Amino acid sequence: MEKERKNTYPLEAEFDVAETEDEVTAASHKELIEMLPERQKEVLLLVFYHNLTLEKSAEIMETSIGSVRKHYDRGKRNLKELILKKTLHENNK
């Protein structure tokens, strides 16, 4: 009696690794975003993780587009500094 062989399909290993690395990076960045001042954190989460425009973010935050741009720009700058510090710290281990 012969066993039935199920169809198998090769996994795309490179895709799986890249996806995992992206997920780890996104989780790491989200942790760093949590360290930002409240308004900067709020606008970056709306833009980066909810894919909203600055205009829509301003509407949700019930503030002016100018204020949202200010917090967005400062948040990106501060996040970049946090990422660089974390990277330097990890490389010096």
Automatic annotation (TrEMBL):
Q: Name one GO biological process term.
A: DNA-templated transcription initiation
Q: Which Gene3D superfamilies match?
A: Winged helix-like DNA-binding domain superfamily/Winged helix DNA-binding domain
Query: Its Gene Ontology molecular function terms?
Result: DNA binding; sigma factor activity
**Domain of life of the organism in this record?**
Bacteria
Q: Which Pfam families match?
A: Sigma70_r4_2
* Domain RNA polymerase sigma factor 70 region 4 type, residue spans: 31-79
Alphabetized SUPFAM superfamilies for the sequence: Sigma3 and sigma4 domains of RNA polymerase sigma factors (SSF88659)
Q: What is this protein called?
A: RNA polymerase sigma-70 factor
